[in-house]
Amino acid sequence: MGSTLYFLIIDGYSKASRDDLNTAGMQLASKLYGDMLQRNLPEAEYDVLLPSDPGVNMPTAKELEKYSGILWTGCNLCIFDDKNTSVVKQIALAKLCYEIGIPSFGSCWGLQVSVVAAGGKVAPNPRGKEMGIARKIQLTPEGENHPLFKDKPPVFEAYISHDDIVTEIPPGGVILAGNDFTPVQALAVTHKKGTFWSVQYHPEYNLHEMACLIIARKEKLIELGFFKEPEDLKILVDKMKILYKESGRKDLRWQLVIDDDVLTDEIKECEFRNWLHELVLPYSEQSD
Predict the structure, then answer these.
(1) 100-115: per-residue pLDDT in tens?
(2) Among 27, 117, 151, 206, which residue has the fewest nearby CB atoms (within 10 Å)?
(3) What domains does the chain contain, in order, with CATH numbers?
């Protein structure tokens, strides 16, 4: 790994949405991904694409050639909103990446992009919003034997925030993990020349970022019944922020029902690290 590897991070949030998250104390989605990338591949460098900003041009096939991998962050768009030009442009970009064969990885929105760009379908989850910690995510038989989940526990929990779910797997797609709330929590799609591994949850988050996201979404979460009163939300968020700083606190781990699978980078970023080693490094060596 002597030469520098370059990545493209696609952050689909609009500037207004980015500002809302920042006001709540949250880092930008692209920064969370960039930090995760450099924790696991310190010599990596990356560019950030903001496709929801006015006047932003999407990269051409030639411009994509410099990248060893494409990273798709979460965002608050709806993948089936075909009137939104950013959504349309991002799906087209994902299709181009499949055609070129650049390895892709994404969380939340990224998983949904991987599905629709390859011919699958996404729709609102009839059970509503899954928020906070996705409980009891279990690997499928295919997931247990898939390199994306090498060294991952067969049952685990993860940070999550989404309203939509995959309703039709595209040709070349394999479900790798799910839970009772969301049947498709992880997916591998092989389409044309490309491979896209993705998860519905957020390995790039930590407990502090999840707490800030709850603050950013507080009105909606109270409206949906996640909290009865604003004070209830504040109590939870304060405990989350304390546990982030003092991860060994037995009392808070017990009260929040949180363990190492969401507190330690080694476990929660396992999938991303496997993507780097199993797809990106072989692809970059082949491209040299």
Answers:
(1) 999 999 999 999 999 9
(2) 151
(3) 6-204+269-287 (3.40.50.880), 207-256 (no CATH)
